[in-house]
Amino acid sequence: MIGSLQISPSSIEESMTHILHRQIHATLPVAAGGKGIELFDRDGRTYIDASGGAAVSCLGHGHPQVTAALHAQADKLAYAHTSFFTNEPAETLADKLVAGAPQGISHAYFVSGGSEAVEAALKMARQFFVETGKPERRNVIARRQSYHGNTLGALAAGGNEWRRAQFRPLLIETHHIEPCYAYRYQEAGESEEAYGLRAAQALEDKILELGPDTVMAFVAEPVVGATAGAVPAVPGYFGRIREICDRYGVLLILDEVMCGMGRTGTLHACEQDGVAPDLMTIAKGLGGGYQPIGAVLLSRRIFDAFAEGSGFFQHGHTYICHPMACAAALAVQEVIARDDLLANVRAMGAHLSQRLGERFGNHAHIGDIRGRGLFMGVELVEDRSTKAPFDPKLKLNAKIKREAMARGLLVYPAGGTIDGMRGDHVLLAPPFIIDAAAIDAVVERLGDAIDAAVP
Ligand code: PMP
């Protein structure tokens, strides 16, 4: 059931709070509850959660099996420090994740979110080369138009200049190549395959420029989320990236924090690209928002290097392998498997793609509709023929978000940098339980919100 509601943007009242929000003058309603695909605020307004927050709430809200698992775990064991103990939910979850992981993955390392997972993966890559006698390998290559988190290592890897600019003096040195972004960079007359190979060539060029013996890892999102609004690579791109990494002994870190754990219709997005990483980061959909959790999935050769070398991974946080977080993730993943929700992601993803095409295919200000599964994005442009983005001063993202909320819809407005300019995208990542009628309502409300927001 979808609650119907009409409110004006101005009726979202400022909440008096001592919480420091990202925007200091945030005017945010207070979330009071959630059920299924809907969230409710304290004033009784209802919103369809069509982005699962930031692609987090894959099972929706208030799932009884997950809340029951959380209660049971809290009664049994809420916390035990990992320098003394392992724990049952963490062990079971690691077994389950390794069993379903891409080829070569042998272990899981649990942290509390995506940025922590990326930090840990970068340190694993570095320690791998120290343990295997190649300490000169230190350079990280990543892509412009990417987001890997907000802690300093993850921020250094991310390619979004706007996020990095003021913190640059604090960041480790990283090197950025062009993204695989067909809408913007595929040339007229160039096939997808040819474009993919050309885009991947940028990695080899960068490795050769830096000196192959100095390069540690290449980090990339298989489907770019927060900075680009669900941009998948073209077929063949990641296959070539894998070959290049292997040729030069560079570790491939795939960041599936946002696009992973079923969001694109397969458990891992990289399955659709036919590649397996050396290290993979996952988070958001792993715990579905019921607890903060992230993980690094690492390959056998990295584990072996640690096991045969110093015997430990030199890292750690107080809350690694948190029993409550692991129990929540286990319950979320059990429900997804039991109810075959990935089949629904594929079916509803196709429906969403079709409806977006119908509503926005000829829209004067939608340049591109893209994505995979229930991870779809639309890119706004001022002019479809030149693909020029809107002036960032218009703050179109923020306007669309407000107009959507006023219509009882939550979408994730992702602002990326396009050729140095800020661009506007809307990211849709609804819960895996969504049905066709709700998708129709999402597209209708989004269409109205965009039309009300664009100048
Ligand atoms: N990597 C990717 C691909 C992400 O999308 C995000 C979050 N948007 C992160 C890392 C960071 O995750 P977190 O916000 O949980 O630290």
UniProtKB/TrEMBL annotation:
It holds the Pfam family Aminotran_3. InterPro entries: Aminotrans_3, Aminotrans_3_PPA_site, PyrdxlP-dep_Trfase, PyrdxlP-dep_Trfase_major, PyrdxlP-dep_Trfase_small. Gene3D superfamilies: Aspartate Aminotransferase, domain 1, Type I PLP-dependent aspartate aminotransferase-like (Major domain). It is an enzyme of class 2 (transferase). Its cofactor is pyridoxal 5'-phosphate. PROSITE patterns: AA_TRANSFER_CLASS_3. NCBIfam families: PRK07483.1. Belongs to the class-III pyridoxal-phosphate-dependent aminotransferase family. This is Uncharacterized aminotransferase YodT. It comes from Mesorhizobium ventifaucium. The lineage of its organism: Bacteria, Pseudomonadati, Pseudomonadota, Alphaproteobacteria, Hyphomicrobiales.
